[in-house]
Write a structure and sequence with these properties.
Strand content: under 5%
Low-confidence stretches: none
Structural class: mainly alpha
Helix content: over 70%
Number of helices: 5
Radius of gyration: 26 Å
Distance between the termini: 81 Å
Number of strands: 0
Largest sheet: none
Order of helices and strands: HHHHH
Shape: elongated
Length: about 140
């Protein structure tokens, strides 16, 4: 599995360069315009996420929510923006897939399952027997 991942990372730039030449020869200036627009959108996505991440984290803290979900959601959006900046069709497809995956709800569900599996103990009750004696 690690070999497949490493070889995919090694081959990605070559596939992207091949795709740039292939789609560039098919669509010409329109493809160049697509690359520029996607880079601008990726940069804007990164800037917006950087501006909103502190507000998201403060909101999660105030509501008592799952901080891991907020952090992973922001990291997912930052990675998608970085993939949009990298020129090419395949990285744009991967970035788009990252944007449409709902990571936060699945993490919240897993977190709720984890919290419900913990045994609950009530330490405020004292067990024992008593009897009332009258003077």
């Amino acid at each position: 599995m690690r070999l497949i991942f490493i070889s995919a990372l090694f081959l990605l730039p070559f596939i992207e360069i091949w795709g740039l030449f292939k789609f560039g020869s098919m669509y010409g200036w329109w493809f160049f315009l697509y690359i520029v627009v996607m880079a601008i959108l990726g940069w804007q996505l990164i800037q917006d996420e950087k501006a909103l991440v502190l507000g998201k984290l403060m909101g999660m803290i105030a509501q008592g929510g799952n901080l891991a979900a907020a952090i992973l959601g922001s990291a997912k959006n930052l990675l998608a923006g970085a993939l949009f900046i990298f020129p090419g069709i395949f990285t744009d497809m991967i970035g788009f897939i990252l944007l449409i995956i709902p990571i936060q709800t699945s993490i919240n569900n897993n977190f709720q399952d984890f919290k419900s599996n913990k045994p609950t103990t009530k330490d405020d009750a004292i067990e024992g027997e008593y009897r009332r004696e009258e003077d």
